[in-house]
Amino acid sequence: MVEPILKWAGGKRQILHEIVALMPEDFRNRTFHEPFFGGGAVTFWMEPKKGTINDINPKLINFYVVVRDHVDELIEDAKRHKNEKEYFYKARAEFNEIVRNGFEIPNIRLASLLLYLNKTAFNGLYRENRKGEFNVPFGRYKNPKIVYEDRLKRASEVLRNLDIYNEDFTYILRVAKPGDLVYFDPPYHPVSETASFTSYSKEDFSKKDQERLRDVCLELHEKGVYFILSNSYVKPVRELYEGIGGFEILKIYAKRPINSKADRRGEMPEMLVTNVPIELRVGREKARLIVNNGRSRTLVASKSLVEYLTVAERST
Length: 316
Known about the structure:
Elements: H1 16-21, E1 32-34, H2 41-46, E2 51-54, H3 58-69, H4 71-78, H5 85-101, H6 108-120, H7 149-159, E3 162-165, H8 172-175, E4 181-184, H9 207-223, E5 226-232, H10 235-241, E6 248-255, E7 267-274, H11 284-293, H12 305-314
Parallel strand pairs: 1-2, 1-4, 2-3, 4-5
Antiparallel strand pairs: 5-7, 6-7
Helix pairs in contact: 3-6, 3-7, 4-6, 5-6, 9-10, 11-12
């Protein structure tokens, strides 16, 4: 597996086994798509042989294009950054100036600055204001590691197998084929009327967008495309998927470490929705074996899922 190369709020590593449990057993042989990429924990864990990733945030997509196509240049530039408060704010200003002036993908300097800001900003947050400018303050880490060279190079290898898009999530209707697997991780619906989640891009994800996403899932289902979707376990979202033939809603729990209120930093309910038939799924027991014992992907790089599980079971 490849570790995610950016810190990202709402990352899916802690519930990865729940997601894998819903996948078809032969998921490694299927084309995989992740239309809300963010930190990409699921894709980097899977290391798919082919597929697509997408995100509406052009700065983020620029970063992944640079990692894929110019990883050595990115590493060279990023090694020059300094974990100093004055330098941080100069770097943040430079990042925002490039954004204001407009940029073409790939932009190596912008990617380098994003990596630096991600590793040194407060709580590793990525947040934008309405102008699309990065506005997180300095994090005051004592000695953060900014450049994980081996991790970046391994991520580059994974991304070379994938097409990268910077579009609305509906692009998936053009590219997904019957039998493909899609994982949707949209911005979560607020858990209360007063809750406001951090903005990862200047565009909000509205209730209407949640409805559009449900409609996309319906179209994919009709095309014979499998999907898994995660979201907050709240009534407005549940109601979008309840009663749809072939869809199943599951309640799981995940920790929410980034919250202004301490009593909301514990385990919170989340929702997974899927159209993968039960008889095709990996299942929770096997998924835990895969995720917990499958840290060394090279051990089983050429093995089928059954062979992979055999190796995992022998190690326990």
